[in-house]
Amino acid sequence: MTQAHDTKQRLLDTAQKLFYARSYEDVGVQEICREADVKKGSFYHFFPSKRDLTLDMLDASWKEFRETELPAVFASDIPPLQRLERFLDMQYRHHKAVKEQTGQVLGCPYGNLAGEMSTQDEAIRERVLSIFRDLEAPIEAVLAEAVTAGDLEKLDTRATAAAMVAYIEGLTLLAKTHNDPEVVRTLGPAMLNLVVPVSEG
Amino acid sequence: MTQAHDTKQRLLDTAQKLFYARSYEDVGVQEICREADVKKGSFYHFFPSKRDLTLDMLDASWKEFRETELPAVFASDIPPLQRLERFLDMQYRHHKAVKEQTGQVLGCPYGNLAGEMSTQDEAIRERVLSIFRDLEAPIEAVLAEAVTAGDLEKLDTRATAAAMVAYIEGLTLLAKTHNDPEVVRTLGPAMLNLVVPVSEG
Question: Which residue of A73, A131, A153, B150 has the fewest CB atoms within a 10 Å radius of its CB?
Fold first, then answer.
């Protein structure tokens, strides 16, 4: 049972690494099995298809990020707006480290899948959408806290959080296109200006 | 000669349509030829590879957009900041029309390629990068004009234009992930708050 769990995990980790470095369509089940050192029959024992593996992979990787990275970044040891700066800094350090390891800025693993697969696979599109919404939640909470503390004028916290997620995704795509993590460092702080006012009526 | 030109153009148009609806990797030369009603030998007479066709396609489609759509959007018949609003409105109307035609928000054809191919093909990455830079130019000019007119405080016009392009790309990706063009309409105007101050020293 432990061995089965290890095999499944190895398939998930390998697929994640390969998709992130290239793309979903460019990586087939055969390559995932070869890289993970798992027989093809074993793959289909765990996953009916590459798409099913991908949905499990998204769930697992997002769960880890949400439960470990996000609480640390959004911890209330510093004032709310500084937490957004810490979040941007985490993004920058991630892309810098990935570039040092691979020679490339790989972008956002969720944004990459959304861009490539949203028109081709409804289940993948919806899964990434729920991840984007999940990411908006702590940003929205920080904005609400900043408004209460008087650090920000009253604003539409929900729409502003969505705008900030859009900006991070766009910035990450721009950094990938430049193959330069410095794009995130230099343009990131402008995110704090993205304010959607409370709509009237 | 006219016939050859027609054939080549049909291959370019067909590839553009198919890539935009799905992805680069999901569409092969065979399908492009079938849809364009062109023999495979004829394809390779015009293009050594799918990648070469793609570079030509990017050049041609961007040239058309830059020479027809952009001058109309950024024409000086209205104050500078209103031109940015007109640009956002053009984006929204485009995604709305595409959704009505196809049932889907297809995203940005350049951003899609950048996200999928930047780590896999240097020539495609560089071509899309030069398109992003080209798009920054009229935005930068509008910002400079707005500063001169006193509509904006002094700012780093170049960095702000890059931040705005990042935001548009991210917003487009978010709209694609929601499969909803309204994302562009509701969150678009926040782009005008994205200001990168002039750096000191």
Answer: B150
- My answer on whether A22 and A95 are in the same domain is no
Q: Could you give the ipTM of this predicted complex?
A: 0.97
- Smallest CA-to-CA distance from B173 within A139, A149, A151, A131 is with A131
SS3 A24: coil
Instruction: Say yes or no: A96 and A176 in one domain.
Output: yes
Q: Give pTM, 2 decimals.
A: 0.97
Tokens of B185: 């309409």
Name the nearest CA neighbour of B143 among B72, B63, B198.
B198
Mean predicted confidence (pLDDT) in A159-170: 98
- Gap between the terminal Cα atoms of chain B: 59
Cα A128 to Cα A55, A144, B24, B39, distances in angstroms = 9, 25, 20, 39
Q: Does A186 touch chain B (CB under 8 A)?
A: yes
Range of the domain at A178: 50-193
Is position B161 within any domain?
yes
Contacts of B104 in chain A (CB under 8 A): 118-119
8 Å CB contact between A7 and A38? yes
CB A79 within 8 A of CB A182: no
Other beta carbons within 10 Å of B97: 11
* Domain match, A30 and A84 both: no
Q: Answer whether B133 touches A (CB < 8 Å).
A: no
